[in-house]
Amino acid sequence: MRILLVEDTLDIGEAIAASLGRLGHAVDWETDGQVADDVLSVQAYDLVVLDILLPKLDGLAILRHLRERNDKTPVLMLTARTAVDDRVCALDVGADDYIVKPFDYRELEARVRALLRRSAGEATDRLSCGDLTIDRRARVVFVAGQPVDLTRREFTLLEILATRPGRIFGKDELVDRLFGFGDAPSPNAVEQYVARLRRKLAGAKAEIRTLRGLGYQMVGP
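^ thats the sequence. predicted structure below, dont judge the formating
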């Protein structure tokens, strides 16, 4: 999934970006509040991890602008403020969740999973399609009970498709959700990942179909 991280403390930002990157997410990291606000006005994300205290424009203002545009992207607020009123204010403005610094990165990852799961309408971290099972917490995939070895980006692509079986995902949308600003995907990058997934999932009762000129969809038995 593609995530925007807005955090101006460099060591914290680097650690969060690395943590989310290890989970297979494409992470765009901004340290300037105004720049982040501008980016959110033109670029869609699956999740925003947003600090409150930022230069030029604070996180609450960014969040307020996001919601005023009726943008429902889930937002996880990062805050060093422990007062209840500050947390209530963030939630009232439109935050979906918050975590107080300092935090355990395992908790951060769990909250990220929960928000992504909630936005997809899923109740648990396990997805199933036919005999294909995806465990998003452990980042493992099984076909008929047998584990399948996937790269991080292959896993993320499969997760995107399996979250909405039957939905058609255009190639441009998949590129947008798989790669961040710092990546330089080739024009046929999505085709290559889909081809690899098909080979690795050969024999599964679920399949990835190509709809020429439209995109790809996951279809169960």
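The chain has a mean pLDDT of 90.
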